[in-house]
């Protein structure tokens, strides 16, 4: 039986965007446009369509630009990471006071999607009685704009383990307490996931639509091609 949909989401937007090279010299990566729309707005549109009531964006690199971009969205809180950037796990832990203590979504802003809303796919597969995190994946051969092997493999029960078959898309549901159990400061979500895997509480689901990594310049044109193909 699936559990209630998470009521909060954190959109990751704090990173330096170094893979983008000169494109992020004057602006943060989430404000780079794909098909005429900022990456951050692509991600926010997914949260809006999924009716997630509590929304937050973390910010560090060129945080003032992120905040200014969101000025017309009073429903979106900004979690400022100062003076140091906190990585994915630390950034999410830092934002928990804005998000509440229930299960929540996180979504990377440097990706573009086609097909079903990834947050809806996660919500339909979420089973809190046996899961503390549910990661959304695509087969490595369908990970557009993404170089290298996959990150995980799924077993027959849906449990997730380190492997090379499936690529993590940057979308998940995670229990707030699993993140809050870590001490404050900078740490990766990988530390959370590895601990959950050891306890049999890390699960995965596969996105049936398209996904493109837009963390590097070549991903922009690739994502625009993918969106054109789906239209």
Strand content: 25-35%
Structural class: alpha/beta
Question: What is the distance, rounded to the nearest whole angstrom, between the alpha carbons of the first and last residues?
Answer: 34 Å
Uncertain runs with pLDDT below 50, 5 residues or more? none
Q: Can you give keywords for this protein?
A:
231 residues; alpha/beta; Spore Coat Polysaccharide Biosynthesis Protein SpsA, Chain A; 7-stranded mixed beta sheet; 7 helices
Layout of helices and strands:
Layout lengths: L7 E5 L20 E2 L2 E2 H11 L4 E6 L3 H7 L6 E5 L6 H13 L3 E6 L2 E3 L4 H8 L7 E7 L3 E2 L7 E3 L5 E3 L3 E10 H5 L8 H10 L3 E5 L4 E3 L3 H14 L1
Parallel strand pairs: 1-4, 1-6, 4-5, 8-13, 9-14
Antiparallel strand pairs: 2-3, 6-12, 7-14, 8-12, 10-11
Helix pairs in contact: 3-6
